[in-house]
Write the structure tokens for this entry.
Amino acid sequence: MKIQSIRGMNDLLPDQSTTWQYLERVIADVLARYGYSEIRFPILEQTELFKRSIGEVTDIVEKEMYTFEDRNGDSLTLRPEGTASCVRACNQNGLLHNQIQRLWYNGPMFRHERPQKGRLRQFHQVGVEAFGLNGPDIDAELLLLTARLWKALKIDHAVTLQINSLGTAADRAAYRAALVDFLSARQDQLDEDSQRRLHSNPMRILDSKNTHTQALLNDAPSLHDFIDSESREHFEQLRSVLDAAGVSYQVNSRLVRGLDYYSKTVFEWVTDSLGAQGTVCAGGRYDGLVEQLGGKPCPGVGFAMGLERLVLLLDELGVVPDSVAQIIDVYLVAVGAADAQALVLGETLRSDCPNIRFQTHCGAGSFKSQMKKADKSGASIALILGEDEAQNNTVGIKFLREDRPQETVDQSELGQLLNTLIKD
Ligand code: ATP
Ligand code: MG
């Protein structure tokens, strides 16, 4: 029997990797334009890191983490998200002491969930975190940055922004008590999941997909009435920047997010185009987290976007430029004794034309079969090196995507000609 991959952990095949590279390139470009720096950290961390940051009674820590003992008997966990690791790395390397940091990372995350469209066990996130800034201006910057990213990807018409404020930990505790009071009195009307959460993580009930539970919640106390004046002011200022910048949003008072560390601002970008897994980007402010993980108090705010879901959305909307799938520009065909010369010519051309992608035919074969490969390669030009051409130091140029007669040119002029024919 052939050994198979682990369920929910997919291979990324060459026909999809071009879209991924495109997506990652656009994201990296937008982040660079806002002055964010990349940070990389390990995929494995001590289990304690995630327990302490994400929270013991969250879905992630309770049932989704890949946790195991290594050979020394230490409990390790494959990272289920990036914020905790990012804060750990910043604390450990002294990046947060009296400094502002604007950071991003990209990499695989691991959660033992039921695999389905847009939900995997190894998935990929680009995360963005900003440290050292208290005010709503940085919250707004992150949202403006994401709005610009959706425009660059041509998916802005398909995503909407939801925002909420969670206030402080104390506000949430007061709200939590009021919510538990309200829901306890109606316990028998709650769905099974929500009954279970009533005492472990009642605010997650607000997220319930159960329509009956949602209807019940219409009369529940609203978090908005519990948040303190500072959080309220912070939220109002954030809203006014979004208004001024023309970024539309909905205030969703039931948006609480699944991790314990958030405070004040939380947000999600959601789409209707992907079915149930509609959140493509989510985040919020986490002012207590750095201290909770052993650092000096330092405010933070950030988000993560799910790359699988973004790729699904790009494909669904058909907005990936055709050129993205094209991986070479010029295909070198060589017949007969010219074979070895083609490789040498390829090297010369790569030196002369650094912006052009060449593929040299390898493995011999008839002229006809080589031309077929040239066509299939997606190249726009085939260079033909037959015995005559080799002898005369010329090359045949065949235009594969244009109705244009074949030309013969001198090899010494070829590089310059290609540079004018193919402009990025
Ligand atoms: P969901 O409600 O969909 O489970 P979440 O609240 O658990 O999402 P976060 O922890 O905030 O998600 O992660 C941020 C983003 O990462 C999500 O909005 C989503 O795009 C992506 N994501 C999270 N879990 C998965 C997964 N198992 N497979 C694919 N993408 C995921
Ligand atoms: Mg989840």
